[in-house]
């Protein structure tokens, strides 16, 4: 299901609030700064940029980079004040575990191990990012709030994996 445009607009306008940039750079900024909790594809970003430019929320500088206009900054602030759009949950691991009887216990344990490795890798990346952020910087304080959420989610997932692994291993064949 496509993401509602308001959330994509928010992500794009937010990225452009940092600096003027190309559409490619907007995607890179979203991946590098928001990637632990948000993603946008090029297929979402370029239509959003065209839509925002047509609305007057985005302009272009002499180098052809997209820039946030005063109207765009106002739209960004308005979007930031709206409740987040919550989509239906999608968790591929839980989908597979739900039908785990068909997959078999060994497959389920392997899926848990793979997920555990991925979550551990992400937590290490968040720790690296945390080390680069300055808690006294007004902007970076907010980034630390979202980073903390990612850390909490990762630790909770690891605890759930340990509990689930123990349950699976305790069941008779």
UniProtKB/TrEMBL annotation:
It comes from the Bacteria. This is PadR family transcriptional regulator. Residues 90-169 form the Transcription regulator PadR C-terminal domain. It holds the Pfam family PadR. Residues 12-77 form the Transcription regulator PadR N-terminal domain. InterPro entries: Tscrpt_reg_PadR_C, Tscrpt_reg_PadR_N, WH-like_DNA-bd_sf, WH_DNA-bd_sf.
